[in-house]
Write a structure and sequence with these properties.
Structural class: mainly alpha
Radius of gyration: 15 Å
Shape: flat
Strand content: 5-15%
Number of domains: 1
Bound molecules: zinc ion
Helix content: 25-40%
Number of strands: 2
Number of helices: 2
Length: 68
C-alpha cells in the first residue's frame, strides 16, 4: 500500500485534492531541481493567455467570498 500523502524526493510533485488534504499521485521520476514531470509541468506553467482567463475567474471567487 503506497503512501501518497507526501511528495517523494526525485519524483513529480504534482498534487491533487483539497487544501490541507493533498495527495501526490504522480510518481514519475524528475531530475534534481525539477518539480514536475513533462506532463504536469505543461499544466502548471499555463500560457499567459490561459492564465488571464483563470485569473479573472479567480477574482470572481474572491469578491464572492468578500461579499459573503
Ligand atoms: Zn507528474
Amino acid at each position: 500500500m503506497a503512501d501518497f500523502s507526501l511528495p517523494r524526493p526525485g519524483c513529480c510533485k504534482w498534487a491533487e485534492g483539497d487544501t490541507g488534504n493533498y495527495v501526490f499521485p504522480c510518481s514519475t521520476r524528475v531530475e534534481a531541481g525539477v518539480s514536475y514531470c513533462a506532463e504536469h509541468s505543461a499544466i502548471v506553467y499555463i500560457p499567459p493567455e490561459e492564465r488571464r482567463r483563470s485569473r479573472s475567474s479567480g477574482d470572481m471567487s474572491l469578491s464572492f467570498r468578500r461579499a459573503a
